[in-house]
Amino acid sequence: MFDPHKAGEIAVSVQNLGLIYKTTIDKKLSLTNRVKHLGRGTKQTRIVNALDGVNLDIDYGNVLGVVGANGAGKSTMMRVISGILPPTSGRVEVYGKVSTLLALGVGFNKQLTGRENVILGGLASGLSRDEIESHFEEIADFAELGEAIDAPMRTYSSGMYARLGFSVAVTVKPDILIVDEALSTGDARFKEKSLAKLKELRGDNRALILVSHALGTIRDVCNDVAWLHKGKLIQRGMPNDVVDAYQEFLAVGKSAVVNEDV
Ligand SMILES: Nc1ncnc2c1ncn2[C@@H]1O[C@H](COP(=O)(O)OP(=O)(O)OP(=O)(O)O)[C@@H](O)[C@H]1O
Ligand SMILES: [Mg+2]
User: Fold this and answer.
1) Number of independent structural domains in the chain
2) Worst-scoring range by mean pLDDT, 17-26, 45-54, 58-67, 249-258?
3) Are residues 227 and 254 in the same domain?
4) For the chain, where are the alpha helices, taking DSSP H only?
5) Residue 73 Cα, ligand 1 centroid: separation in angstroms?
6) Ligand 2 centroid to 74 CA: how many Å?
7) Shortest-distance ligand to the CA of residue 71
8) Do residues 220 and 262 share a domain?
9) Which ligand is nearest to the CA of 19?
């Protein structure tokens, strides 16, 4: 099923990417303000520049780690790359099929069982019934959900939910795989198994993007790292160089809490 790409071929090209979130919020007004605003709406628009002129090419054969503080824009960038969010400016070109954990996780219907979700998700992503059946056991085994595979997903813990999403993603073996923090909810043993699986996937010249606060894992698994901060790409390069710089920034910013491996 997988048509191997050549190492060095572009997988994803992020060009001058900008994303602005506009949310209307109901402002609670004080009494005087309520009098002043009488008759006028109290809705305010909150504008967040989540991504601001980001340029980033990701080649096949690479594992790109994405690091950055909470709210840096990492998940937003992954949503834009996976086509869930349209960019406000700039563009993203994807050469290959994208199957994201994020999209898979979001696509799960909590009222349905794990089994039903895997089958529906497979059909939705264009697999035939036979292909799904042939993958099903592998997915269920990897997720190790036992009988819970036939329980409604609303009864799953967040770790169980992530396990199933991760299992689908690594079994379907997309050309481009985006893993946004999904490893962090797994327990230590599942995390180890998932990392081994990710390392295995590196072999076929796929493009992997791993968003994580687990900086040890980033150093270990990735061969390329991008650091985002407040929507901007701050640094991109060799894992140790970029992670060192980011950790130094965290230490100086006295927010070393994020340093911890999760
Ligand atoms: N749906 C949304 N509507 C409005 N603002 C949003 C939305 N999603 C994210 N934001 C804002 O965009 C910015 C970037 O958020 P994003 O989730 O991309 O950060 P992140 O780097 O993934 O952070 P974390 O490490 O916490 O996962 C934040 O300021 C956040 O508040
Ligand atoms: Mg995020």
Assistant:
1) 2
2) 249-258
3) yes
4) 31-36, 74-81, 101-107, 114-124, 129-143, 158-172, 188-202, 215-221, 239-252
5) 6
6) 5
7) 1
8) yes
9) 1
